[in-house]
Amino acid sequence: MTDSPDDPDRDWFGTGEPTEASGIVGEYVALRREAEADVLAMQMGDFYEFFGEDAELVGEELDLKVSQRSSGGESYAMAGVPVDDLAPYLKALVERGYRVAVADQHEVDDGHERRVDRVVTPGTLLDPTDDDAQYLATLVRGERGSEPTVGLAFLDVTTGRFHATAVSGPDAESRTLTECYRFAPTEILPGPEARNDDALLDRLRERSEARLTLHDAEAFAPGHAKHTLREQFGDAAAESVGLDSEPAVRAAGAALAYVAETGAGALASVSRLRAYTPDDHVALDATTQRNLELTEPMTGNGRSLFDVLDHTETSAGGRLLKEWLGRPQRDRAELERRQGAVAALAADAMARDALREALDGTYDLERLASRAASGSAGPDALLRVRETLAVLPELVEVVESSPRLADSPVADLFVDLDREGVRGVHEELAVALTDDPPKSLTAGGLIRPEYDEELAELVERHDEAAEWLDSLADREKREHGLTHVSVGRNKTDGYYIQVGKSESDQVPDHYEAIKTLKNSERFVTEELEEREREIMRLEEQRGDLEADVFRDLRAWVGDRADLLQAVGRAFAELDTLCALAEHAVRNDWTRPELTDEDVLDLDAARHPVVEQSVEFVPNDLRLDRDRRFLLVTGPNMSGKSTYMRQAALVTLLAQVGSFVPAREARVGLVDGVYTRVGALDELAQGRSTFMVEMQELSNILHNATEDSLVILDEVGRGTATYDGISIAWAATEWLSSAQATAPSPKVLFATHYHELTMLADHIDTVENVHVAADEQDGDVTFLRTVRDGAADRSYGIHVAELAGVPNPVVERSREVLQRLRDEEAIDVRGSEDEVTGESKQVVFDLGSGQLRGQASADGGEGETVDPVTESVLEELRGVDVEDTSPVELLSQVQEWQRRLEE
Ligand code: ADP
Asked: For residue 746, how far is its CA from the centre of ligand 1 (angstroms)?
């Protein structure tokens, strides 16, 4: 995470002292400070220049050549790019996390002046390189009653998507982080209160890649924010979308204000604000989203669920699939709608192929709409809008002619679209734009002449002039009896008549020689020059007029950004549904039955990612009211984690509306999935793993409800055995309702504490399952099959035996194991006392969970308890605390201390 502008008085010229720079550099420093930019590009004639540290930074980041200049005895670095080449450099800097200001040069009466007209930041870049959503996040701390509340807004200027919400309660902060993780913003603006909360800022820095910008507090003020919202959406905006929490309104207003301030015109495409409640979605805290590798793999070479499922044809489809995976739903009707669409698409392979092929020829309409609205779309962009809109009728045709699709929710995707409107936009673009337009707006050839009367006239006159030129050579030949004549044009000579050397002295008098070449001579005539001027004039007029027409056309399209975004969303959704259907068919997935009942019943289920790379052994799983807590045991690497994750992933896939990897599945909708698994990445971040483990456990114990699914992959492993086992034990009791304060969630708990398996005998809802392993001909085979009952507990020793560890050692380990289990103590062999024959013992220390040496019961050398201590202990045991006054106790303790010291 990058932080906001650093010290404005930083040492620009390497002199060690802040300097009052003068002239150009002084202007640079002042503009840069005013714009609160990390980097400033300042126009000087045909170049944008960077000075001082900025020059060094762009030199390093962008490989620009940096030179040293000196002025007034000071030396400074300088780098520049030609004015027309700035865009890619700007983008590259912003995508690396910098806030970049651009100061343009403007002509004024007495020369020119420069001012910062735009600031581009990671959250407000209009045409990012990658396809992911690019959210700007704002967060505002407040209170609702006495509850801490955080207002959150997420705005993607590239597509106009804008969401706002408020999270409240004691865990408002962790829910804030969860939402931030979901939207993965590229830039975060904490409000004035949050800005002083170092702990929160630290967590944001730790958990997010986003740039943290400390923006003007004014934008977050309630009145200001409300005003901004009203300006953008009209009077009742906040109320009408149900945004009733002040912090949320402040967050939303500030996001808009920030984008407006960057001056990129990006606000034009933001036509609506969606208020949402995180509770509409399955609760997935940031840790769980990461653990389950929904959209990002944990390791560089791993694959996320998204990677496996992404058969989308378009970038907008991929973006939506990612969004769905990060935000599984709880609304059964919506999920069944998606399922219905996936089922229909899965059943009609021909139609699906046709749809996917047609989608392949479309572009990202949501983004194109934003660019049209902001006035940054070029000819290419509008052509793409045209090509993409042309696909709508094709898609509709495919859907309508497939009985399966016509009668499915797929058809509904197009029902609400204003098809007439779409046809209108397409037609306008079709009659206006030529098929192969030049890049530059003024080069000519961008707009079809028929589209504009004035243009048609200009073009006609131009054509006439051109025709006159075309026929000029022939005319000259005829009239003046010449044979080797041609007419040409170049930059230095303009139009000329070229006559071969042999005839160059026969040209008429009104020919004026302008250049002699080896085999020919060039001439001009007054008439030719006159025509040339006319053509130039016409070309210029045509270029200007076409650019004007184009800008009008673009604004007209931009006014319809709403419609284009709706079409873009429908295409994206169709693409996503096709991808899910495609995957279901290719991998033999099944449509899960969704129910409100409290059950997860999977028949021959697989792990959606692991099944892609290994011969997967399917497994069953059943959780319900009476069997809610499964203790999963089995040797390392047998498949415990995979089994548990597969339960979570199948549930989430069902709540995305997807088919699932199983022969049959019944999925009771959950309100949240919570996980606690070995946290390698936390280790890398230098946080104590055990602390993290306990924080995660605490989060689960607080938040999981009876409708949640909980996955625990080892609990308590990060501390001493007895600590660990005690915590695991108590957590099991708590989560299985043995200590019922609330109905319990459904839980899968893998543990290496075999002792826990006995809980199944005592708590009705707890059951043991184990992943089976087998030994054949001396080889251990992991069967990957999950069976009822606990795993064979001496499995490790069995493996040692198979590995050829000498027999006496194996035998002895069995004995040690047995005694540890029975008595929590082992005698140390070879330590027998010569006289008594008794051996030393090692016991488990309950406090530390460590083995500790101890003399055998009636005394080895020097370890007996002396009589004084013995008597003190005796008295101590005898004290009745309830019946003794504090003063009495105090004096007794003093007395014992005295005796012990003696
Ligand atoms: P554990 O949690 O018991 O240590 P894992 O769940 O990490 O074991 O599984 C170890 C490896 O075994 C996985 O990487 C996977 O490749 C393989 N595996 C797990 N379950 C299955 C299965 N049902 N079928 C095939 N391979 C499996």
From this structure: 22
The band of 778, judged by pLDDT with boundaries at 50, 70 and 90, is: low
How many A from CA of 630 to the centre of ligand 1?
Answer: 18
Give DSSP secondary structure letters for 636-694. Answer: TTSSHHHHHHHHHHHHHHHTTT--BSSSEEEEE--SEEEEE---HHHHHTT--HHHHHH
pTM for the complete prediction?
Answer: 0.81
Residue nearest to atom 10 of ligand 1 (CA): 637
Q: At 843, is the pLDDT very low, low, confident or very high (cuts 50, 70, 90)?
A: low
Amino acid found at 212: L
Q: Where are the alpha helices (DSSP H) in 163-219?
A: 172-183, 192-195, 198-207
Within 491-599, strands assigned E span 494-500, 512-516, 520-524, 593-595
Q: Which residue has 């005895």 as its token pair?
A: 73
Q: Which amino acid is at 830?
A: G
* Residue of 843 and 319 predicted with greater confidence: 319
312-348 as b/e: b if 16+ CB within 10 A: bbbbbbbbbbbbbbbbbbbeeeebebbbbbbbbbbeb
Instruction: Pick the atom of ligand 1 nearest to 750's CA.
Output: 2
The mean pLDDT of 692-699, rounded to a whole number, is: 81
Q: How many C-beta atoms lie closer than 10 Å to residue 420's C-beta? A: 7
pLDDT bracket for residue 123 (50, 70, 90): very high
Could you tell which of 292, 613, 615, 637 is best to mutate to test the pocket of ligand 1, judged by most ligand atoms within 8 Å of the CB?
637
Cα 570 to Cα 576: distance, rounded to the nearest angstrom = 10
What are residue 450's phi and psi, to 5 degrees? -60, -20
Residue 4 has pLDDT above 70, yes or no: no
Specify the residue with its C-alpha closest to ligand 1, atom 13.
639
Could you give the strand order of the β-sheet that contains 851-854, starting from the edge strand earlier in sequence?
Answer: 825-827, 841-844, 851-854
d(CA 168, CA 180): 15
Shortest CA distance to 752 belongs to which of 640, 603, 656? Answer: 640
Bridge-based pairing state of the strands 47-51 and 111-120:
unpaired
Q: Tokens standing for 76?
A: 């400074």
Q: Which regions of 31-160 does DSSP assign to beta strands (E)?
A: 39-44, 47-51, 67-71, 74-82, 100-108, 111-120, 135-144, 147-156
Asked if pLDDT for residue 662 goes beyond 80, the answer is yes
DSSP string for 286-320 = HHHHHHTTSSS-SSTT---HHHHH---SSHHHHHH
Is there a contact between 186 and 212 (Cβ–Cβ < 8 Å)? no
- The token duo for 110 is 């007495």
User: Kind and range of the H or E element at 579?
Assistant: helix 561-587
Three-state SS at 740: coil
For residue 16, what pLDDT band results from cuts at 50, 70 and 90?
A: very low
- What is the CA(464)–ligand 1 centre distance, in A? 78
What is the mean predicted confidence (pLDDT) over 772-786?
72
Structure tokens that stand for 342 in this block: 């996936």
Residue whose Cα lies nearest atom 17 of ligand 1: it is: 639
Q: How many Cβ atoms from other residues are within 10 Å of residue 661's Cβ? A: 28
In the block, residue with structure tokens 């935000």: 327
Residue nearest to atom 25 of ligand 1 (CA): 616
Cα(135)–Cα(137) distance, integer angstroms: 6
Q: Which residues line ligand 1 (CB under 6 A)?
A: 610, 614, 616-617, 619, 634, 636-642, 784
Q: What is the pLDDT of residues 587-630, one digit of tens each?
A: 999 999 999 999 999 999 999 999 999 999 999 999 998 899 99
Residue found under tokens 């509904």? 412
Q: How far is CA 618 from CA 277, 291, 584, 621, 646, in A?
A: 37, 22, 16, 10, 10
Question: Can you tell me whether residue 421 is helix, strand or coil?
Answer: helix
Contacts of 397 (CB under 8 A, 6+ apart): none
Task: Look at ligand 1, atom 5, and give the residue with the nearest C-alpha.
Answer: 639
Task: Report yes or no: 7 and 29 within 8 Å, Cβ to Cβ.
Answer: no
